[in-house]
Amino acid sequence: MDVASDRSSPRNRTREEVFGVIEHHGSVTRARLIEVMGLSRSTVNHAVAQLIAAGRVAEEDAGAKGPGSGSGRPAGTLRIIPHGAPAGALDFGHAHIKAAVIDAEGRILSRRRTALDVDLQAEQALDLGTRMLDELRREAGLGDLGAVVAGIPGPLDAATGLVRSPTILSSWVGLDPRAELGRRLGTTVHVENDAVLGALGELRDGAGRGFRDFLYVRASHGIGAGLVLGGEPYRGSLGFAGEIGHTPLPGHTELCRCGNRGCLEAVVSVASIRVQFDHTHPHDRGATLRYDRGGDPITQRILDDAGRLLGGVLAVLCNLLNPAALIIGGELGASDGPLLDGVADTVQRYAQPAIAGSLTVLPAGLGVDAELVGAATMAASLARR
After folding, report:
1. Of 46, 62, 80, which one is at a domain's C-terminal end?
2. How far, in Å, CA of 109 to CA of 60, rounded?
3. 374 plus 242 within the same structural domain
4. I need a surface site. Which of 64, 114, 150, 182 has the fewest CB within 10 A?
5. CA nearest 232: which of 196, 280, 261?
6. From CA 104, how far away is CA 85, in angstroms rounded?
7. What is the dihedral angle through the alpha carbons of 21, 24, 28, 33, rounded to the nearest 10 degrees?
8. Model confidence at 232: pLDDT above 70
9. What is the number of domains present in the chain?
10. Does residue 183 sit in helix, strand or coil?
């Protein structure tokens, strides 16, 4: 019987849902599965028994119970048994491409970063990303990749997979990145918005662990947000949720690439911070910028101001969504520095007191690699199926 059709049959759908929950949690007890899924004990036990018999799940025995502890099953821990092909991850930023190859357990074996104007060079970016993955795969001595996940810094139509917005990634409009990469790589490819992958990376391995509802913000050459609601990434009805970079800021007239003026990412971005730094540091033009607290007072002020502008927009979103945490990533926000301070102060000032009082603001635990780690996590999962 075909494995894919077997797994999608009504009889075995519950088994696959149980597998997905175990995979999502990393390790989980049967009691926790019953609680999370709302299924009967017998249904969960039957599904787990099938997964163990198939060699897809292992149960680590918690040991015998002590006297008086009851006669039920010990609270053993269920975990996925890694198997399957290696996988690949791509992170297309506005000004860079990152690539990585991953083993069956989801560990990144090797990675590479290359600078490129991705917005204006779609075909070149797709070709280069393909070449980077192939070189990493061969250098690591790996066979064919079982799956590849790529993140792009723009909105994807969830129904068609096409890049729709003519104001973001202008040379990508009308392209289907999944089909383009699949043709080049010859394997299963899944494409996501980069901020969604950043949120997933932080949820599984970064600062988002322990939070079921949080907002991840990538503050870099553009500004994008990934939402996690109820422990799962939220993409919106068409897949466009989190496109906050073109929120207008009253009183600002900076020209944005979308044709409007005063958009958030035209005022708060790596390029904008660079212009302000070069203007205030004429003798240090082109110097490496420090985004942490180790910079000079003028740079600290520039970053704090940028954080306050970003915080004003995020305060509105916090009032709407009531997240437990704001996680700031990207080059501008991944360090615990003045930009983060500006965000935190402004959110505390303008979010409703009950919301602000319960909100945690913190830098991305994975730094600038949150998107790549999120892509790697998803790719390893796809390669195991």
Report:
1. 80
2. 27
3. no
4. 64
5. 196
6. 6
7. -20
8. yes
9. 3
10. helix
